[in-house]
Amino acid sequence: MTLSATDIIPEDWSRWSNSKPVPISPLNSGLTNRSFLLASDPGRVVLRWNSPISAELDLNRSAEEQALRLADSDGLCAPLVYCDPEYRYLVTRYIPGEPWNQNDSTALTKFARLLRAIHQLPRIEATLDIEKKIAHYWESISPRSEFQTILQSLRHAVQPHIEKANTLNPGNTLCHNDLLTENLICGDDGRLYAIDWEYAATGDPFYDLAVISDGHALTQDQQRQLLSEYLQRPASQSDCARLAHWQLIYSYLTLLWYAVQHSSGALRTPQIEQEIRSRSRTLTAQLAGAGT
User: Fold this and answer.
1) At 16, which helix (H) or strand (E)?
2) Domain boundary at 79, 96, 113, which?
């Protein structure tokens, strides 16, 4: 379906643009948000319409705004233009650049530098409590879901890894929590930027590292390099074990995220059902081979 400018431009556009913005093109969005490149006054901006199931996905839009303002002050994200007080949409400046390429010779070094900078920002009140997030996701999954049995079985298997990860965490920091390819831009200025901070919260910084390692399918060598670059010292066995626990936890949360989408009807397709089955099999095998 082709959307008209009326469907795209918010009715209160005058709060952040001196002239009515004009849509240029849709942008690659997440599976639920919709994003558009616009011509406006103050220049090209990105308009993101937020997911209609933000509550089910346990998204804290107020926390996202806080984190964005902190990151903006340090030049780590697309500069914030306007945040709708009702959290329906968000406007940021457009950063010209290319997607992050993990095979570039300096890619992991730049990523580690960005991550350290994010984790050095002031913490926000919103926290990533894994057990509460799991419980919240479960509230949004239909008890009649065909995936109920396997998801519950995996929940019990993941629990010891949550407990172990918590004991290995010496302190929480502000985290982005969703640094996947679509949320990273290598700007034309040579800097790496993080966008879409909708999962931002205070938590264990190794969760961010787990998202990166799994989300980008880093090899074992790349994971160790990333750890060493981030820690600015050789990664220890304890560091690697801590990362491994968080990778399993992240895999389970991702699986639940798909299950929530499926139950809500937002992504009820054969492809999503296959995605859930495939991820369930993979995580089952990983947990069977992992110690605690």
Assistant:
1) none
2) 96
Q: Specify the CATH number for the domain of residue 33.
A: 3.30.200.20
Q: What residues contact 250, with CB distance under 8 A and at least 6 apart?
A: 207, 210, 211, 214
Token digits for 104? Answer: 């570039």
pLDDT digit string (tens) for 74-113? Answer: 999 999 999 999 999 999 999 999 988 888 888 999 999 9
Amino acid identity of residue 265, one-letter, is G
Q: Which residues contact 219 (CB under 8 A, 6 or more apart)?
A: none
Calpha distance 59→216 (Å, rounded)? 22
State residue 129 phi and psi, 5-degree precision: -95, 105
Cα distances (Å, whole numbers) of residue 125 to 60, 80, 135, 173, 178: 11, 20, 20, 11, 18
Check residue 231 and report its DSSP letter: H
Q: How many Å is the maximal CA-CA distance in the chain?
A: 59
Q: Report CA torsion sign: 69, 73, 76, 82.
A: positive
Query: How are strands ordered across the β-sheet holding 184-187?
Result: 97-99, 184-187, 192-194
Look at the block and give the residue holding tokens 């798909």: 258
Residues 66 and 118 in one domain: no
Query: What letter does residue 122 receive in the DSSP assignment?
Result: P
Cβ–Cβ < 8 Å for 21, 39: yes
Residues 273 and 143: beta-carbon distance below 8 Å:
no
Residue 144 sits in the same domain as residue 261: yes
This prediction's pTM: 0.92
pLDDT, tens digit (0-9, with 9 covering 90-100), for 135-158: 999 999 988 889 999 999 999 999
Boundary residue ending a domain (69, 96, 123): 96
| Rounded CA Rg of the chain | 19
Q: Could you tell me which of 35, 40, 4, 6 has the C-alpha nearest to residue 22?
A: 40
Q: Is the pLDDT of residue 180 over 70?
A: yes
- The closest of 90, 98, 97 to 197, measured between CA atoms, is 90
